[in-house]
């Protein structure tokens, strides 16, 4: 399977990244360290996950100890103003319907373009954008988005968005690639078809779900803070296909 995907900026994004949503402070540092040690070179973060300081400290230690170099890593972060295509009404904090407002995407995107121009970001992208919102963005963008990150797994295949992104050269990255069994309570890992394929191949259902994403051309961002599952989720490259 492919270890990297090339973005429209020329940068290469590793096909498996460690998800860090719901990776609590106190355990996330160990998860990051384990992941880097077993070969992950891509970490998916966000300001809203409230654990970036601990992730930063863990990475700093790995750099100082010579385990990995900064330039070998792909680190995604999301500023709250572009994490979802919504903004919050002034003075509200909680992410619920009555607090949401229409964001000013053109001015937000200009700020991200300035970040790209400065060299501080190798690529800029969006998250949770529909095809329509992406088209609206493409209509005004000087630098087109390199990535759109959305929920994506065998139970939510996003066929229309996949085709749209492919036609525009936007890489589609999948969060909750296992269907987020812990939080969203989906049953992808118990799906009979996924199970049958896993039994046939001698792999776990999680590995089959991840390979489905990679073979469809998506980077996948499984979250785990468990050592065995962090390893399992990265062990998806050495089989045929
Ligand atoms: P844990 O952190 O204890 O491993 P997703 O990335 O789709 O949101 O899924 C993350 C959830 O699935 C977490 O609850 C995580 O728990 C669990 N998980 C991660 N990897 C696996 C796996 N290979 N098999 C089963 N559950 C997993």
TrEMBL record:
InterPro entries: AKR, Aldo/ket_reductase_CS, NAD(P)_OxRdtase_dom_sf, NADP_OxRdtase_dom. PROSITE patterns: ALDOKETO_REDUCTASE_1, ALDOKETO_REDUCTASE_2, ALDOKETO_REDUCTASE_3. The active site is at residue 49. The record marks 78 as: Lowers pKa of active site Tyr. This is NADP-dependent oxidoreductase domain-containing protein. It comes from Trifolium subterraneum (Subterranean clover). One of its GO terms (molecular function) is oxidoreductase activity. Residues 79-237 form the NADP-dependent oxidoreductase domain.
């Amino acid at each position: 399977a492919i270890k990297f995907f090339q973005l429209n900026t020329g940068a290469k994004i590793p096909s498996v990244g460690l998800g860090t949503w719901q990776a609590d402070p106190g355990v996330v540092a160990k998860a990051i360290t384990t992941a880097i040690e077993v070969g992950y070179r891509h970490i998916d973060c966000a300001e809203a996950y409230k654990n970036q300081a601990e992730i930063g400290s863990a990475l700093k230690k790995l750099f100082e100890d010579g385990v990995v170099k900064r330039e070998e890593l792909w680190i995604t972060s999301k500023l709250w103003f572009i994490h979802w295509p919504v903004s919050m009404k002034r003075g509200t904090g909680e992410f619920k319907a009555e607090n949401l407002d229409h964001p000013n995407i053109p001015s937000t995107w200009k700020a991200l373009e300035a970040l790209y121009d400065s060299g501080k970001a190798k690529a800029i992208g969006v998250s949770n954008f529909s095809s329509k919102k992406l088209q609206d963005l493409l209509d005004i963008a000087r630098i087109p988005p390199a990535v759109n990150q959305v929920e994506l797994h065998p139970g939510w295949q996003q066929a229309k968005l996949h085709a749209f992104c492919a036609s525009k050269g936007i890489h589609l990255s999948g969060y909750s690639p296992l269907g987020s069994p812990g939080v969203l309570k989906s049953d992808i890992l118990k799906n009979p078809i996924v199970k049958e394929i896993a039994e046939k191949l001698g792999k776990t259902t999680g590995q089959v779900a991840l390979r489905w994403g990679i073979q469809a051309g998506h980077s996948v961002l499984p979250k785990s803070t468990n050592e065995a599952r962090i390893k399992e989720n990265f062990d998806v490259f050495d089989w045929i296909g």
